[in-house]
Amino acid sequence: MDYDIAIIGGGPAGYSAAIYAAKCNLKVALIEQERLGGTCLNKGCIPTKALLHTSFIYHQQHSATNKGIKSTITYDDQQAYRYKDQLVDQLVDGIQHLINAHKISFYNDHATFNDKHTLLLKQSQQTITSDNIIIATGASSFGLPFIASDIKFIYNSDDVLKNPLTQTDITIIGGGVIGCELATYYHQLGRRVTIIEIAERLLPEVDKELSQNLQMNFKRSKIEILTNAKLLNVAEENDGLSYSYQLNERSYTKFTQAIILATGRKPNIEGLNLNSLDLKLDKGHIKVNEHYQTNLDHIFAIGDVNGKIQLAHVATAQAEDCIRYITNQPMIHQAKTIPYCIYTTPEIAYAGLNESQAKQANIDYQISKYLLNSNGRYLIETDQRGFIKVIFSNKVIIGAQLYMEHASEYIGFFTMAIDNKLNVEQIANSIYPHPTISEALKEVTANINNQALHILTFKR
Predict the structure, then answer these.
(1) What pairing do the DSSP bridges indicate for beta strands 126-135 and 3-8?
(2) Phi, psi angles (nearest 5°) of residue 210
(3) Last residue of a domain, one of 276, 291, 326
(4) Range of 188's domain?
(5) Which residues are catalytically annotated?
(6) In angstroms, rounded to a whole number, what is the distance separating the alpha carbons of residues 86 and 94?
């Protein structure tokens, strides 16, 4: 065989697996048909957050007159996108440097299976063989079947991250994570935004209190939200689109200048020639066991393509565990708590159990909640409402839900606390610096023992 491991896909799952394998002294091939970094770095996590950061700064300065900042500023979307592209290029170059430094054979090509151990690289017409093959091809946006692909002014998330939209009236189909983040971006630029969501609330998979707070904040910000609404059809009209939707068994028609489809993602398996291997699928995703093995024990699938949890940090964890299994080492991430982050304003983050899940599991639990309007540093930085809610069982943290600025930076602490079964005293008895938002971590945990200084006891 040419290689110990060949990996198809250079996103977080693929390049991480390649580096972990190289650190285990395996001979590794990594094949990526586009750019290293995959969707996350090139079309997802990083460009989205870069643009959200620019719009956040713009929006903050417009609303900072009470802080003594008075100026006339404009948003140059072309420059913002150049900033985003430069940032992405820098990170892609960094990954390429790591691949080279670990002496990983990198092929910028499209791989397809010739047989169970052989890959054909379509552009170069080269074949490579490998003892083990990992499929890490990710997922991509998909449209709605009743919307024709040639209608103008309809975009997906890839489209709007590639080129800026000039329209001032934007409708987003889908109130999940991608839809809510894009709504935040365009609202912060002063655009008129409408969200259509088929479920009864935005972020239907998220803790109800978190999603309700975001929904209320969006409504206060004049973002129009239509929940329990089903899109029926779309047609071009003048320099925009007319669309019909069903709400409460009635049909309505509205006009918008642009529609963004944020309705979900599908696994990238086309062109791999999986049928020739008789590889088993599960609802379109590659079916794997607890070791990320397919029904062929030397072929593995990690990341979004296996349909488990579509998060970059989960893909990276799966990559390490997959390589550990292949090299006969114990897997370390399977029982770990997964943190979730949503980069709206304010941010949402959560890990472990929420109250509803604790009830369903018949767990004897307590809840402590800390409102950040009593935290000096938080008030200095933002006028957004914020809170931390923590679920305890026998004074050990089992879950946390955060609705606050910088929530994504603090959820890692709670993830670590849950995994290590930290109790109230282990967290609350430490000294936290002042003035910092981190003081809230002490307050929300000390509250379980009625020892919080800045909470009129909130627990149940």
Answers:
(1) parallel
(2) -65, -50
(3) 326
(4) 154-263
(5) 434
(6) 12
Are residues 252 and 270 part of one domain? no
Q: Where are the beta strands (DSSP E) in 313-447?
A: 340-342, 347-352, 366-371, 387-393, 396-404
Tokens for 71? 């100026």
| Domains contained in the chain, number | 3
What CATH number is associated with residue 365?
3.30.390.30
Please provide the DSSP assignment of 123-159 as one string: TTTEEEEEEEEEE---EEE---TTS-TT-TTEEEHHH
Q: Which long-range contacts (CB under 8 A, 24 or more apart) does 96-99 make?
A: 96/36, 98/15, 98/19, 99/15, 99/18, 99/19, 99/30, 99/36
Q: Is residue 149 one of the residues assigned to a domain?
A: no
Considering the domain architecture, whether residues 101 and 242 belong to the same structural domain is answered as no
Angle (CA) 352 427 414, round 5°: 25
Kindly state whether residues 136 and 270 are assigned to the same domain.
Answer: yes
Q: What is the pLDDT of residue 227?
A: 97
Structure tokens at 158: 């890839």
What gap in Å lies between CA 74 and CA 62, rounded to an integer? 10
Q: Give the separation between CA 145 and CA 261, rounded to whole angstroms.
A: 12
Q: Are residues 76 and 218 in the same domain?
A: no
Pairing type for strands 154-156 and 258-261 reads: parallel
User: DSSP assignment, residue 449?
Assistant: G
CA atoms lying within 13 Å on the CB side of residue 244: 7
Q: Are residues 122 and 14 in the same domain?
A: yes
Write the CATH number for 247: 3.50.50.60
How far apart (Å, rounded) are the C-alpha atoms in residues 181 and 344? 5
Total number of residues shown for the chain:
460
Q: Over the stretch 398-455, which tens digit does the pLDDT of each residue have?
A: 999 999 999 999 999 999 999 999 999 999 999 999 999 999 999 999 998 888 888 7
- Say if residue 250 is in the same domain as residue 115: no
Q: What is the pTM of this model?
A: 0.95
Quick check: is 459 in a domain?
no
Tell me the C-alpha distance between 403 and 218, whole Å. Answer: 14
For residue 457, what pLDDT is reported?
60
Give the pLDDT confidence of 166-209 residue by residue, as tens digits: 999 999 999 999 999 999 999 999 999 999 999 999 999 999 99
Note whether residue 295 is domain-resident: yes
Pair 350, 287 in one domain: no
